[in-house]
Amino acid sequence: MKSSRITLKDLAKDLNLSPSTISRALGNHPAISDFTKKRVQNRAEELGFRLNSIASSFRKKKTDSIGIIVPRIDIHFHSLVISGIEEYAYNNGYHVTIFQSKDLLKREKEIAKILQTKMVDGIIICLSIETKNCDHFKKFDKLGVPMVFYDRVPTDFEANKIVINDFESAYTATEHLINAGCKRIGHIAGNQTTDIFKARLEGYKAALKKHKLPIDSSLILPTNNLNYEEGVKCAQKYMELPELPDGIFCANDYTAVSIIQVFRKAEIKIPRQVAIVGFSNYPISKIIEPNLTTINDRAFQMGEASAKLLIRQIEEKNDFIESETITLKTELIIRESSAKVPVTKKVVSQK
């Protein structure tokens, strides 16, 4: 055969079968005998023939493809979510394409435009920190492309969402410090333009109010990105205060780890002088000394739940269901960084 690329017609001519029979055999159509299927598939493999996936998608009106938009792939939380999405999608016959917005609204809008032309069956999204208006996603509704938002979700239109209760989780973390005997508790807060970090700050405040402890604004330190470097600066600010906090709830594990390292270098005893709780249960929380008490935010399960909800939408197309919100339970994992009295490591579930 002269062409370097084998076509469907070439394969049909080689096997003396019709192109439609070849297409059905390669698509495992029940009307084609097992003998013919095997014959076609073996010869296709020998000749290096592959079905045109784009043409096949047009015929099926389905690509078996899911687009994912995440703020940052290098954040452990998002990599776990992606892993959960990919695992469930793969087991259900879908493949995924991953884009990262780098927490930039401009980039997120550009990705949305790209996905509008890529014929994906559905999209899973975590909004960038800069995103306040989600008009750029509304076109997917008009195109009939299902969407599921996770973690950072829109408030300006109805959408399918997978979330955790950030308020309740922060309340639990702060109350744990109170029950450990802390009375002067600080909070390293996430970007307050983002709802999940607002909720964590409010959960922290609510726990203090319930236990009649003062809310001291000098102990609440806001950050932009909750990265390690910002955590170091927050630790230094705490050490400059006339009196150290005796407990600190951090809105993520990166800042909690940096607090532990800075304090230990300054010979501040953890947890005897300052007890620390993080959020997200990153792998480093089990490596740092002392091991970090943290909230397990179920990132992998969030990915699984997002893919499950999206694929159900794609395949069932229930027009009578406008949107759905699923809230996953978190878990407080108690480790050495908050144990005022040394105890055997244990896990405590929080509902």
From TrEMBL:
PROSITE patterns per UniProt: HTH_LACI_2
Boundaries of every HTH lacI-type domain copy: 6-60
Domain of life, per lineage: Bacteria
Pfam families per the UniProt record, alphabetical: LacI, Peripla_BP_3
Annotated signal peptide: none
Family annotation (CDD domains): HTH_LacI (cd01392), PBP1_LacI_sugar_binding-like (cd06267)
Gene3D superfamilies hit by this protein: 3.40.50.2300, lambda repressor-like DNA-binding domains
Gene Ontology MF: a single term: transcription cis-regulatory region binding
Keywords in alphabetical order: DNA-binding, Transcription, Transcription regulation
Name of the protein described by the UniProt record: LacI family transcriptional regulator
Organism: Abyssalbus ytuae
